[in-house]
Amino acid sequence: MPALKKQDILTILTHISRKDMNKQELLRILSDKIPNLTHLIDYLLSEEIILNKEGMFSITEKGLKKARHLYEKPPHRREKIKTKFTKRRGLIQLAILQLLKEEPRHGYQVMKLLEERSEGFYSPSAGTVYPALQDLLEKGLISVDEQTDKKVYTLNHDGLEFLSDIVHNEDEAFWEEWRLRLMWKQSKEAELLREEMGKFQLEFQYAMRGVLHDPSRALELVSIIKNGRNELINWSEQLVIKETSISEGRSSASADG
């Protein structure tokens, strides 16, 4: 994608992410900045990057991912593998590595154990588990023994080293956190947070482009970021106080009992 077109697309997505707007409003705001605006709007609609609902444009989840992809630099190979493990598919692959750390297993065993370790919350299918195993093979993190009736997968040295870099919990703690993360990633609250975070990242990168053209505005942007960070710090501190109070209340009630 040419650099100019890339920036034009990001500009459109940034404005639509701020609020839903109709085509006339978008043309009024951006037609002077983007000569081929109508063509780009049609492209974004056809690719489902933006959505036209009753005449109002809004950015889609695919659009937020597209914007993030356009802004981000291609990661180094090792960092790229680690980045993949932060996604839901990565959670499944991480759990598979943890299972293979215990002992070699075949695909059906992996599938049943994932369901068991999730305590019934997650029911994996062959269409999820076997492609995940194949992906881990291609990454060189596991090995397969095809001399038996069934393919038996084993965590190799690279896989163990990789797992040790990411997982620092004891086995029991790992599975508890894994269940919580799996539940969270599928929740409506997580979806809402991802959407707002995507919009924030889009807005921040748009602001950074402005700073590049006028470095004197950098201090203003720093101030905005500091204010937001301070609000997060205050929120986190209040959360800790609340959780401590609840924990102390439970301990007191237990002692009285």
From TrEMBL:
InterPro entries: Tscrpt_reg_PadR_N, WH-like_DNA-bd_sf, WH_DNA-bd_sf. This is Transcriptional regulator, PadR family. It comes from the Bacteria. Residues 96-163 form the Transcription regulator PadR N-terminal domain. Transmembrane segments: none annotated.
